Amino acid sequence: MKKVLHLINNDKKFIDVIIREFENNSEIENTFILEINNNTKPETLKKIICKTSKELCDVGFIDILKNYDILFVHSLTASRAKLISKISFNIIIIWGAWGGDFYHHHPLLKKTLLEEKTALLEKKLLPYFKEVFGRPILQAIYPQRFLYYWQQKAIKRINYIAPVIYDDYELIKEYYLAPHLKYLSFSYGNLEEDLLNGIPKKFELGDNILLGNSSTFSNNHIEIIDLLSEINLENRKVITPLSYGVIKLKDYLVKYGNEKLNNNFMPLVDFISPEKYHQLLTTCGIVIMNQKRQQGLGNIVTMLYLGAKVFFNMENPTYNYFKRIGAIVFLIEEIIKNKESAFSPLSNEQILINREIIVKTRCKLVVEGCINKIKELY
Fold this sequence. Notes:
Radius of gyration: 21 Å
Strand order of the largest sheet: 3-2-1-4-5-6-7
Helix content: 40-55%
Shape: globular
CATH superfamily of the largest domain: Glycogen Phosphorylase B
Number of helices: 19
CATH topology of the largest domain: Rossmann fold
């Protein structure tokens, strides 16, 4: 039996999923460590041990790892990267790459994420001088204060990458100069228990528009809000999830969206239950994801299964991923060119094609198979 130690984030959405997925496999013995900061007061969680970021790097904790076959880090934080860089003994290390843990920290990748208007907005809302001038100076003088420095060290010791999509694996190998990394197929959550939770078996997909997945600059909301303001939306609601992310951006987008789209704009500023959120998704026949990075894949997978028409930024590797596996997806350029006529619904045949692809790649049986392969690693 393989003994696996998991380092997980203090994110309730993923904690329950990770524990459920791994505990369902009787051939893997799991220990779950929740990384917290000194000010965090987490809820009492079964099967979880809490450790501060500082405690993860203690010599004593490193010695504990010798009792395990596999270390699975779910998102590569600075403390985890420091920990991995100190491991010299034989243990398999898996990096569950989420996206935010490398896109926003590799200096070259970070420069590619924003559209022009959103980049200007970021300069307006965030301490631009500190970011543009202060950060490079600090990185040159004190590189060890930055995550990228420790990731470069840790990645030499990491064996496997378990990314959200395969294309992120290729990206990490290229940008981190790490050809030794092996790919591990993995998914956080499955179709039946997570992505379709709360969605009735019989539903009629509405014609609202889902825009982005969070209050983060990488969604490039401004460009799409401006684009939609030039289109006859009729009674469509532009449902825009903003319940987590950058607060200053959320406040700005609520005001900007209301000014540009009036009653068509529907920001989601508060957390709602997964069941209510998924029911709201069934009112959306159109999805617009203007990120240049992999982001919001849970929403995308759910909407493709439901039969929505999904539009991507042409620079988003997620678009290439879905095209490669045969899904029917579209580019935002089609909206720019054809305006509201681009919002014509998918045919029944196209919906079935996308649904079959989602089932083949994200169903419970497939996810269980991915976890089952972990016990075979050596």
